[in-house]
Specification:
The protein has 58 residues and is mostly beta strands. It has no helices and 5 strands.
């Protein structure tokens, strides 16, 4: 399984229009991802599995 790193940009499978940044890696290999929308509000999802993420290549 490919490993992701904190600060890496990803997309969620259910939210293809938003770019998220990995902010935390948990011991169970799940991730916390965060994004800021146009209004400045932060959106965060916890315990996201690798399979739900699409890695973006910068």
């Amino acid at each position: 399984m490919k490993k992701l790193e904190i600060g890496q940009k990803v997309k969620l499978a259910l939210m293809e229009n938003s770019v998220f940044i990995i902010t935390e890696i948990h011991v169970d290999n799940s991730y916390t991802v965060e994004s800021t929308n146009d209004g400045g509000q932060k959106i965060s999802y916890d315990n996201v599995s690798f399979e739900m993420l699409k890695v973006l290549n910068d």
